[in-house]
Design brief:
This protein is an alpha/beta fold. The chain has one domain: Rossmann fold (3-Layer(aba) Sandwich). 36% of the residues lie in helices and 16% in strands. It contains eight helices and nine strands. It has helices at residues 34-42, 59-62, 67-82, 95-106, 125-136, 164-177, 202-210, 233-247, and strands at residues 11-13, 18-23, 46-49, 87-93, 112-116, 141-143, 161-163, 188-192, 215-219.
């Protein structure tokens, strides 16, 4: 097995009767969601912080993975929590937000979800057609945006390349998810960076407009895409825990 990147290790805590599943993003690893997971654990939650297939090692490992692999991993992590907890909340960054949304469409019993700069809809057809053309010509990867963080002192951890076939798989997964967004009726907390250079803030608006449950919005004014490691990291931790405690009140 390829050696894991530093900080990419999955993490699990078996504590209280309420569980928090924390899901990282595309080409990233648990480094980005570890501070949020640790905040949940400090507040007495049981926690699952999985490493998604193909992530946390080398981009070559990711090229053969796709939406079916990542949703299966998210489902397995959810089941591990649900087996030992009375209630579960799910929080995700970027594609982790996509997987959070996917879980909410499959499990109406989820108490609430937290989506941080989530990817909620596929790119326009002309963009996807261009990517498909690149794959057809034998291109595996393009240079990645990397860790989009405003704080120069913060250290991100993601692949330096964007693998194209997995990107198309993510887009296909999102396309298939659109019809089910309205079925999400649990409480939803959406945190959005206006200065996100990876995911358009309109992606958060799309989710807020599509779900049928109550929506809370928080603007991350000082952070870029990987906001969980950026200037608003403490705000994210505080608000995610407070939201989770509110929507699971009575379980503790």
């Amino acid at each position: 097995m390829t050696e894991l990147m530093a900080g990419a290790e999955p993490w699990s805590v078996d504590d209280g009767p309420v569980g928090a599943l924390c899901v990282h993003g595309f080409t990233g690893n648990p480094t980005s969601m570890r501070p949020v997971a640790q905040a949940f654990a400090a507040a007495g939650f049981s926690v699952e912080l999985p490493l998604l297939p193909g992530h946390g090692t080398t981009v070559e490992d990711m090229i053969t993975t796709g939406w079916a692999d990542w949703t299966a991993a998210a489902e397995a992590a959810y089941q591990r929590l649900a087996a030992r907890c009375e209630q579960v909340v799910v929080a995700g960054l970027s594609m982790g937000g996509s997987l959070t949304i996917w879980l909410a469409t499959k499990h109406p019993e989820i108490a609430g979800i937290v989506c941080i700069n989530p990817v909620t809809q596929p790119q326009p057809d002309e963009v996807l057609d261009m990517v498909r053309g690149m794959v057809a010509e034998g291109e595996d990867c393009i240079p990645g945006i990397g860790s989009d963080i405003a704080d120069p002192g913060a250290v991100g951890s993601s692949y330096p390349q964007t693998p194209l076939a997995p990107l198309l798989s993510l887009m296909d997964g999102l396309a298939g998810l659109q019809a089910d967004l309205g079925a999400i009726d649990c409480p939803v907390l959406i945190m959005t960076s206006p200065n996100d250079h990876v995911v358009e803030p309109a992606s958060s608006d799309h989710l807020a407009d599509a779900v049928s449950g109550p929506v809370e919005r928080i603007t991350l004014e000082r952070s870029y895409h990987v906001a969980t490691l950026d200037y608003d990291a403490e705000l994210i931790r505080q608000e995610a825990v407070a939201f989770a405690q509110k929507v699971t009140a009575g379980a503790n």
